[in-house]
Design brief:
- This protein is mainly alpha-helical and 291 residues long.
- The chain contains 15 helices and two strands.
- It has a two-stranded antiparallel sheet.
- α1 crosses α4 (66-83).
- The radius of gyration is 18 Å and the shape is globular.
- It starts with a helix and ends with a helix.
């Protein structure tokens, strides 16, 4: 079994254990069902895989970082539930099936997202290693997910919806919406392993390169990707008159930037000893992905 598949299987089992199916008699069971609907529906698990991989790269036991990995995925999933809602992007499909609010209604989808966000910190603080590492990991996740990170990026997105956007503002938005949580995922893996400050900084550089390349590739796939492979509609930015890297810079320049940022991520791995092949190949694979 390859390492990525092993990581994803272990993450899936840990997520299932963190959020067991509610009993029919549970009066609060519907919100748990809605949380499970989005959390356990698969996906690439990019962020939690990065957490385990960086823990291993820094000399830690990767499965020991599962509480951090699950916490990152819970925050990511909550953000997708809220992002798909009518007050945000009003998307109908996610990962090949109806979005959460299309199944459970807007109010329950809102609660499902809230439930996952709060459960994420309960899960992160359940890290069984150094108690200070549990605090540091939860703090990093909060910083990256909040108003100066992911939420702040969404704020820029909402304010610029349908309006003109500079490349600089688009970069600021994506550093919040996309890069910040990837930064948390990589950094929490380092923290779980007790890494040194220099390794945390190098992980941050990797996260920046990989995150920007990931978002650029998303913009490219929205233009020339397959809705069947993506599991969601394509051409949505153009339909909403939202600007992205392709509309601002052109398709070829966007592809060139994917390569540039991916190489930035690969170079950042030079700050680590040991076998860096998995994380190098992971970045290269994401740069050429079709979904």
């Amino acid at each position: 079994m390859d390492k990525a598949r092993f990581y994803r299987e272990e993450i899936g089992k840990a997520l299932e254990g963190a959020l067991p199916a509610p009993s029919p008699q549970d009066p609060q069971g519907l919100v748990a069902e809605a949380m499970r609907y989005s959390l356990l529906c698969g996906g690439k698990r990019v962020r939690p895989v990065l957490t385990l991989a960086f823990c291993e790269l820094c000399g830690g036991e990767p499965l020991g970082a599962l509480p951090f990995a699950c916490a990152v995925e819970m925050v990511h999933t909550y953000s997708l539930i809220h992002d798909d809602m009518p007050c945000m992007d009003d998307d109908a499909m996610r990962r090949g099936r109806p979005t959460n609010h299309r199944v459970y209604g807007e109010a329950m989808a809102l609660l499902a997202g809230d439930g996952l966000l709060t459960m994420a910190f309960e899960t992160a603080l359940g890290f069984s290693g150094d108690p200070q590492a549990a605090l540091d990991g939860a703090r990093l996740l909060a910083q990256c997910a909040g108003a100066k990170g992911m939420v702040g990026g969404q704020c820029i997105d909402l304010q610029s919806d349908g309006g003109k956007m500079s490349v600089e503002l688009l970069q600021a938005m994506d550093k919040g919406k996309t890069v910040a949580l990837i930064h948390a995922a990589c950094g929490m893996g380092c923290i779980a392993a007790g890494a040194q400050e220099g390794q945390l900084l190098a992980a941050g550089r990797y996260a920046h390169g990989l995150g920007m390349a990931f978002q650029l590739r998303d913009d490219i796939l929205d233009v020339e990707g397959s809705a069947e492979k993506l599991g969601k509609e394509t051409g949505m930015d153009a339909a909403r008159s939202k600007q992205n890297y392709v509309s601002l810079l052109g398709l070829e320049e966007a592809k060139r930037l994917v390569e540039r940022y991916t190489q930035e991520a690969v170079r950042a791995l030079e700050g680590f000893p040991g076998d860096k092949g998995f994380l190098r190949d992971f970045a290269l694979g994401l740069a050429s992905r079709e979904n």
